[in-house]
């Protein structure tokens, strides 16, 4: 099957590479010539474990190509995937400008009838609108069939998720199109669910909204545990063993971030509102998350009274481990607030340190050395549960910090380990650890 993929961002690049890996001939198209130049040299433009090797392998096999020319990329394509961004507009709704532009580019250049597959997360009804838009611009005789095929991959494990997903959703208007999509995806060996286009679009939003709800739910339980002297880790374990609940996405912390949950929950609230439905539950999920991102500041102010003149080591900038992505990271809320309160901030991140000043205008120092960040600081704040931070002996804090005080937004250490290390330790939904001398 000859496939074109429009957009070489997270979803587009991973999709293109994975489709080439399972045997298709793929051309990825992007309007950014610099990105295409890098990709053509075999350099992946995103940080994603396993992607680089797979990309190179398929470029060498001549199954994977990159171009900034739509005419070249779309030539002879049987199927075109649209995988451009749908960022958030000021009112929370999804910005469909890029997907509309991509659709117009396809309409302008395709010479033969094609199937257009929308991978991007789009509000219910978008696939049908995009089809109409394209039909009004294609040359006569060309037919367009559409398919909604949302992705469920996570950043940092995108390749793994693509090959080991729980399901592949295919939403079409006719069975013939679904047959083609099912055939394309057959080598993945993942169960396929066929549905109508609107339901497929909704499955993506509902899935992300539900996962965000689980996180906000456990975060609220964590906040209550702190007040009642319970331990949220124990509670989550006890809840998760019930198969009806499941143990995934019950990790309490400083809230969800990233390019998806915040954007998609807002977009669903907005979509509901546009149809005179007040999605109160999801509004609360968002509100809980916004509060959760500020929680560590509250804990620090309770402990110190004032943060003015305090040197604070922030560990982690990325919204989660194994990515260099800072979009909607709790660090973007925390660091400006700390500097506003007069703290001097030194931030550590193993991969994203060089991105800090691009995203955060507040004055802060960025380093990829954990020791440099901790050295002589008044306290440490953990934002991202990077493996090297989790693996670190908590006694390191006692050794390097001016005062061994740690605010852990990711519950990286067990309470006994924190006690043993003799550090003052404030985490999420668990009892505070205060060494005898500090009491
Ligand atoms: C999420 C979904 O998990 C994917 O299925 C989906 O395809 C993707 O959005 C998307 O719509 O493109 P992603 O944003 O990469 O993937 O990240 P997750 O691993 O889901 O984590 C999201 C946020 O939730 C992170 O900030 C993470 O730290 C937080 N989280 C996750 C928790 O606070 N607790 C948990 O138990 C799990």
Please outline what is shown here:
The chain is α/β, with parallel strands linked by helices.
Describe this structure in words.
The chain is of the alpha/beta class. It has 3 domains: 2-195, Rossmann fold (3-Layer(aba) Sandwich); 203-291, N-(1-d-carboxylethyl)-l-norvaline Dehydrogenase, domain 2, CATH 1.10.1040; 293-438, NAD(P)-binding Rossmann-like Domain (Rossmann fold), CATH 3.40.50.720. Helices cover 44% and strands 14% of the residues. It has helices spanning 10-21, 33-40, 51-60, 70-74, 97-109, 126-135, 158-163, 175-185, 197-228, 232-240, 261-274, 280-304, 330-340, 356-359, 370-374, 387-391, 395-400, 415-420; strands at residues 2-6, 25-29, 64-67, 79-82, 114-118, 144-148, 168-172, 192-195, 311-315, 344-348, 365-367, 379-382, 405-408, 424-426. Strands 3-2-1-4-5-6-7-8 form an 8-stranded mixed sheet, sandwiched between helices. Helix 1 (10-21) packs across helix 3. The relative contact order is 0.08. The model has no long low-confidence stretch (mean pLDDT 95). It binds uridine-5'-diphosphate-glucuronic acid.
